[in-house]
Fold this sequence. Notes:
This protein has 262 residues and is α+β, with helices and mostly antiparallel strands. Helix content is 24%, strand content 26%. It has a single domain, classed as Deoxyribonuclease I, Chain A (4-Layer Sandwich). The chain has helices spanning 11-25, 44-49, 120-141, 175-185, 192-196, 229-232, and strands at residues 2-7, 29-33, 53-57, 65-69, 74-78, 96-101, 104-110, 146-151, 190-191, 206-207, 219-220, 223-227, 235-240, 256-260. The protein binds one DNA strand of 15 nucleotides through residues 9-10, 12-14, 34, 36-37, 60-63, 113, 115, 153, 208-213, 252.
Amino acid sequence: MRIATFNVNGIKARLPRLLEWLEETKPDIACLQELKSVTENVPVADLQDAGYHALVHGQKGFNGVAILSREPAELVMAGLPGEDGLEDGKDDHARYIEADVSGLRVASIYLPNGNPVPGAKFDYKLRWMDRLRERVAHLWDAEVPTVLTGDFNVAPEPRDVFSVRAMAGDALTQPESRAAWRSILSQGWLEALRAVHPHDEELYTFWDYQAGAWPRNAGIRIDHHLLSPTIADRLLDAQVDKEYRGREKASDHAPVWIEIAD
DNA sequence: ATGGTGGAGGGTCCA
């Protein structure tokens, strides 16, 4: 079974690339981020024609996440709990959706970028990571077979960025961001791509549109899969669909996938 | 310090 993540950076602008990628790589489950669309404008009919059910948590203009699946999925929650001061305790950003599908729990995650540092957005990122840690601790404690995947907007280690110096002031590499990332992993989750490629350099998933980042391979690794133990035991492979970043009208992220034994 | 690019949506905001 193949479980992929793809930050599409606008599902309407990206629809031809998305449908092409679904057809060519046939993921069983595809977690999408940055739909940049309200739920009712997501082209679910095109996705259904491609053979996918779609659970969508959209938002006007930015954010927005979805879970596409070959088999029907059952929504568990849309919106990350725990933000103070909001009526229902849910987030006012559409950055989290969780569902049961094909015998496992899957979450599609779009973690806040957090720039500039310091500032309110960085504070929000760190709060959000703390809330994510609390949510997934519950899944861990309940021993739910789980795949947490998406754009975490954290480059875990110095080798996960093309230039430590160029990224030094960025929210994606701050010690606080990395500490929050580690505090989630320390629950016991396996980070799949690095587990499969423990020694790879230049293992990137995002290349900025600006400054010729793609042609000079100035990438960073911020899209991840975290696996609970029974899923980790079934892990067969993990790869970046890097070639898609070089296509016409590409997203600035490449898709990333894992293969687990059926 | 600035600009470089791209998506959404009709302002700028976001990355």
